[in-house]
Amino acid sequence: MVKLTYLGEFGLIERLSRLCPCSNAVIKGIGDDTAVLRSPVKKQLLLTTDMLVENVHFTRKTKGFLIGRKALACNISDIAAMGGIPKSAVVSLGISGREDSRFVDEVYRGIGALAKEFKVDIVGGDTVKTHQLIINIALTGEASMRDIVYRSGAKVGDKIFVTGELGNSLKSGHHLTFTPRLAESQFLVKKYPPHSMIDISDGLIADLGHILKQSKVGACLYEDQIPLRKGARVADAFKDGEDFELLFTLPPDKASLLRRQKKFNMTEIGEIVPAAQGYFLMDDNGRKESLNTSTGYQHF
Amino acid sequence: MVKLTYLGEFGLIERLSRLCPCSNAVIKGIGDDTAVLRSPVKKQLLLTTDMLVENVHFTRKTKGFLIGRKALACNISDIAAMGGIPKSAVVSLGISGREDSRFVDEVYRGIGALAKEFKVDIVGGDTVKTHQLIINIALTGEASMRDIVYRSGAKVGDKIFVTGELGNSLKSGHHLTFTPRLAESQFLVKKYPPHSMIDISDGLIADLGHILKQSKVGACLYEDQIPLRKGARVADAFKDGEDFELLFTLPPDKASLLRRQKKFNMTEIGEIVPAAQGYFLMDDNGRKESLNTSTGYQHF
Questions:
Q1: Mean pLDDT for back-to-back runs of 10 residues, chain B (300 residues)
Q2: Is the Cβ–Cβ distance between A247 and A197 less than 8 Å?
Q3: A292: which of A83, A102, A236, B211 lies 20 to 30 Å off by Cα?
Q4: Total structural domains in chain A?
Q5: The domain boundary residue, chosen from B146, B165, B188
Q6: How far A288 CA lies from chain B's nearest CA (Å)?
Q7: A90 to B47: CB separation less than 8 angstroms, yes or no
Q8: Domain limits for position A47
Q9: Which ipTM was obtained for this model?
């Protein structure tokens, strides 16, 4: 076992860079003061970041491979929710220095495997000594202006859709193994451009709440239409979070076309209503229950 | 005192975004899944990241303003060392949740003040609960291909220069208050393009070592020429680190021109020699002492 203490910071970065070969979009990757990347041509640049922390997003028992994989997957999910294509990532790793270097290699192997699958280049990083295991990834992406989908574009009458299933992501392990919905996002922006889109990280209620707030509209959710992951109740879908599914709204004509596609698992779960009608859940019998965004998962 | 526990994650990000107004290079800043930025035109994209951790890079007693300032300053220093101009940053903050919200505001004010000074847009971020205070910033930059300076371009016969003074950065507080050498970097790339450049974060010996290794050359340092910060000995300049000065090499003809400029404090401290001659220090009497890169600061 090579301990990190003996390997040193420079050795670690060099070693990890070998796990992640880069595309020709990268002029200079790991090993200089910054990465040098080809600029997107006729596209906008997207930028996002996520920090994962031991005992919040994973535990000491979580496999290193899955920790690394999740750290990148969350960021790809954000780029997908914007209608973009992920490109280049920088990785900051905070470790105690007492870890077996194979564990750290596994973290990078997890990043590298997903990076390869989604054609993301790992172009730089930082390693620091911390008490908890911490991994921060910042990811760039590209999108044509016409493909970008904001949270703020929902219109009254839009139908609300979600990919996959919701709830019970933490207990079921879905939060560690999910595939970011990039294929679904590209399918949507090219064929059925959504008015608004977000990925579900804080739970359906809180994340739909972001769309409603920024779009200045209300929503009605159909209780019996919400697709539930195995072992999940509606309340779990509402507030568990970490589903990393896409939540989006479409005008009625596009929605009726989308309902007929069979390529991806996408479910209509409600509709956008005027802000004055509020944010509510409707059951099978037409009974309404008011919802509020604080039902979602809060980190503090 | 508003405690973060009551403010919540969404409130925190919203509140902080108000401290950092953005330029028109930002199509969408904080508040969506990712930032949307105008792509550089006819320039390359630079990307870097740095993670600062309590009790490694600062302590609980360090003022929040200076912690935030340093987190951004380190990243700007990396962009400067590449010959680029900093553009957009995303900020991840790990806090215990027990902090006075004014402290966290101060961290962002420190980031915001330096961002304003260097025309950097704060375009997104993440907040997470951690034991230690942790701040990670990822920063983009732009540079024309002809302005980019790598670590790998040093040639035998090049003169070695450094900006400012070295050593004693931690005790003197310089590491918290330094101004990233962006003006110096732009002056150099436009008027005296260096063959190689790096910023000194791990100490002169280790960082010059990176240039030597990547350029496959050796170096002779002049012991009595090394500019020392107040209270620093040569040994401190060699290994203290966190100076955030630019270290660069120039061909002899450009070097003799640079020596005569009075605009910036830049000192010639040695020259590049063939790799076979090694890496050594020469004193006033011509006595040589061998140097090795492991003399630099190691994080593990």
A1: 50 67 87 92 95 89 95 98 97 87 88 95 91 95 97 98 97 96 98 98 95 97 97 95 97 96 97 97 93 60
A2: yes
A3: A83
A4: 2
A5: B146
A6: 27
A7: yes
A8: 4-146
A9: 0.93
